[in-house]
Automatic annotation (TrEMBL):
InterPro entries: DUF3326. Pfam families: DUF3326. This is DUF3326 domain-containing protein.
Length: 149
């Protein structure tokens, strides 16, 4: 088996409506016959389109592994990563929040140790449990992890 990572550009979709189906169709031309998409990320967007990263698992046949079917591994179907599957069970005991802080060029907050701590503390005040990366709240000599983080 081989995991292949590709960078691709997909033209913009007017109104950005129905993007999951649009992306699912757009990546088909990049998939080898026996390839299964296992990772898709839009890393940059502009009025012209979307710059994306696509992870493709290939070589299942050569490895003697039968191709997954919808009844075996739902997440490994040819384009299953784009399928929205609502949960059968709903647990509303607590309100949990996951905070993802982008880093690097163009990041509005974050990018440096502890930069996002004020935003994390603000968000933590509105939820029961805040889940985030330690670097969001850690700086060289302080730790601003909220009590419910």
């Amino acid at each position: 088996m081989l995991l292949v990572e590709r960078e691709i550009d997909i033209p913009a979709k007017k109104g950005n409506i129905g993007l999951l189906a649009y992306f699912e169709e757009a990546i088909r031309e990049y998939l080898p016959t026996n390839g299964i998409p296992i990772r898709f990320a839009v890393t940059q967007s502009s009025p012209e389109g979307y710059h994306c990263e696509l992870g493709i698992l290939t070589g299942l046949d050569e490895a003697g592994i039968s191709r997954p079917t919808s009844s075996s591994f739902v997440g490994l179907r040819r384009t299953g990563i784009f399928e929205f599957m609502p949960r059968d069970v709903e647990n509303m005991d607590k309100f949990n929040v996951v905070m993802i802080v982008p880093t690097g060029i163009g990041a509005e907050i974050g990018g440096h140790a502890g930069d996002a701590a004020p935003a994390a503390r603000l968000l933590a005040g509105a939820c029961d449990t805040l889940i985030t990366h330690p670097n969001v709240v850690n700086a060289s000599d302080i730790n601003e992890l909220p009590e419910n983080g």
